[in-house]
Amino acid sequence: RSLSFEKTLRYGINDELTPEDKIVSHNNFYEFGTDKTDPAKNAQSLITDPWSLTIEGDVANPRVWTVEDILKEFPLEERIYRMRCVEAWSMVIPWLGFSLANLIEKAEPGASAKYVAFETLYDPEQMPGQKSRFVGGGINYPYVEGLRLDEAMHPLTILSLGLYGKTLPPQNGAPIRLVVPWKYGFKSIKSIVKIRITDKMPPTTWNQLASNEYGFYANVNPNVSHPRWSQASERRIGSGGLLSAKRIPTEPFNGYGDQVASLYEGMDLRQWY
Amino acid sequence: MVLTKHKVWLTKSALHIGCALPLIWLYIQIELDNLGGDPVQYIIHFLGMGVLHTLVLTLLISPLAKRFKVGWLLRSRRAIGLWSFAYLVLHIFSFLAFDLLFDWSLLLSEIIKRPYITVGMIASIIMLALALTSPQLIQRKMGRRWQLLHKLVYLVAILGPIHFWWSVKSGNVEPAIYLLIFMALLWWRRPVKQISRRSGLASTK
Q1: Is residue B148, in this structure, part of any structural domain at all?
Q2: What are the coiled-coil residue ranges (chain B) (predicted)?
Q3: Domain limits at B24?
Q4: Which chain B residues touch A if contact means CB-CB below 8 Å?
Q5: Which residues lie closer than 8 Å to A49 by C-beta, 6 or more apart?
Q6: Shortest Cα distance from A39 to chain B (angstroms)?
Q7: Chain A interface, mutation test: which of B26, B38, B112, most A Cβ atoms within 10 Å?
Q8: pLDDT tens digits for range A213-252
Q9: A9-47 residue pLDDT tens
Q10: ipTM of this model?
Q11: Residues linked to residue A192 through DSSP beta bridges, in sequence order
């Protein structure tokens, strides 16, 4: 279904867009299997309408939002962002979404609010990976993620409901997902049902699974390699075939450093990877 | 004698076809664009699994030959070993070509820095040595040293699954199964080792 949006924001990116067919057929969404092609195969029957998103925790106005309400309340923008996977491949994706800050402000976080916790739908009947450890890669579901409140309130952080002018396909996290472009892709949690404002750093799925490999912050950083591969460069998935891809240097904060580096002033990013 | 020759020929043909089919299948899938938007990881993984599967086959040959008293089966072992090496070459080539896009310096630094690639590389060097010394002429010239060298395949059979284990992001179930299979195979071969010399000789006479 096509979605209307107000304007296109490129945030200084001139990179060529990754074709839509590649964005929707190469996904990590372990709830539907661990192969990159599994989500496109197995997620098509996911019921995304009706869908509700709860915002709760340390807020003055907790609320259960429906997707319709969200679309009515928050005008969508097209945001063209780089997406850098922790596995060292990347895409350029035209998301449709709105700043997460707008939704959080409506909830009015309390004085002790410091972090934001996110949760993906838990429904083993619909998500085969949640039923079987073998299909789901041994993750303890539901998938959870988290941001510091200031990261969540940053204007670059969006909740996305679409890409390439249409509603999100299930494999890309329909009906609503997070996009944090300066962090590795696994932070951008899919098919969100709950957002909780809290005073404690929330647990995050990949960190729980392998804390030496995936930190809470997971900012894109060419200088801190993953224990099993270098993060200094990335394979940009473009429009061509197998050998036409390019290996390009990875930029600190995925190229958004001038906008977000100040969030981490004084922090040792080798320690807080 | 003629009969054995026939059996060897038939077995080898079946093995060659069996080992080539997955490659043909992979090629067709790539051509048909059936492997998703970015098949790189899939291709590398698929070829790596090919190495493991052919390795299982080579290790199965001699216990099977013994168990069913078909000594001639041993004569197809070299062919599978070479298929294993072929899958290995393609596995490394696709990593270098499709993932690293021929960034040789990155390849070198990854071999040194990443334990799972280091392990894979050690196994690969052994496999290279085994492939290079596989012609019968060299085998004859090397004599007992050939036997010793080719025992290193047991090391490959351990390093391979470890490389697989360390390479996965999560879900160690599948690598664990492979490690177990290889351990079981090595175990199966061990106790019958001494008898194998004699019965192996007897059956080829």
Answers
A1: yes
A2: none
A3: 2-198
A4: 30, 35-43, 97-101, 103, 106, 109-110, 113-116, 166-167, 169-174
A5: A67, A175
A6: 10
A7: B38
A8: 999 999 999 999 999 999 999 999 988 888 788 899 999 9
A9: 888 788 999 999 999 999 999 999 999 999 999 999 999
A10: 0.85
A11: A120
